[in-house]
């Protein structure tokens, strides 16, 4: 079945943009799930739970289109870094990330209401930051970009200048591993529309 429309269980402009690059019409339906920190879960497990719960919240109120939700968690030696709670938290996260590697896990859940089916996927990518000066970190945070992003940075914005290298899928760091996601769609019986 050719997939033309999808419900995104998020207000993330980055994920919306990524889905549109696949030729999909995106219906934004923000989830009411609030991403609590669940102490006994690893960062990878936390991303999976958050993605699943976001999708299920939207599924509970609309069953007319395929639904996708995703969640990104930054993993520093097994400690989950989500979105910063305030400016000081963002500064602290970036100081910790400076001059070292961390992992970025992005999980997603796809729900097909017509088939009453749910499928999940996750991808992990290793990211290394340059050594960052106090001024560089302060200026970046002052610009406001980190405040709604896991780990207090966005690789698709000015945050790209903090990153020395990545090992793995770029789109995982941006918020949706497109290659793995498309393969999940295929497993569920969907193909993308390819323009002539």
Task: Explain what you see.
By secondary structure, this protein is of the alpha/beta class. It has a single domain, classed as Maf protein, CATH 3.90.950.10. It contains 6 helices and 9 strands, in the order ββαβαββαββαβααβ. It has helices at 13-21, 43-59, 87-97, 134-142, 170-174, 178-187; strands at residues 2-3, 5-8, 25-28, 67-76, 79-81, 101-112, 117-129, 163-167, 191-192. Strands 2, 3, 4, 5, 6, 7 and 8 form a 7-stranded mixed sheet that branches. Strands 1-9 form a two-stranded parallel ribbon. Strand 6 (101-112) and strand 7 form a beta hairpin. Helix 3 (87-97) packs across helix 4 (134-142). It is globular, with a radius of gyration of 17 Å. It starts with a strand and ends with a strand.
Task: Indicate the overall shape.
Answer: globular
SSE string, helices as H and strands as E: EEHEHEEHEEHEHHE
Radius of gyration based on Cα positions = 17 Å
- CATH topology (fold) name: Maf protein
* CATH C-level category: Alpha Beta
Structural class: alpha/beta
**Total count of strands:** 9
Portion of residues in beta strands equals 25-35%
The helicity comes to 25-40%
How far do the termini sit from each other? 18 Å
Detail the poorly predicted runs: none
How many helices? The count is 6
The largest β sheet comes out as:
7 strands, mixed
Query: Whole-number average pLDDT?
Result: 95
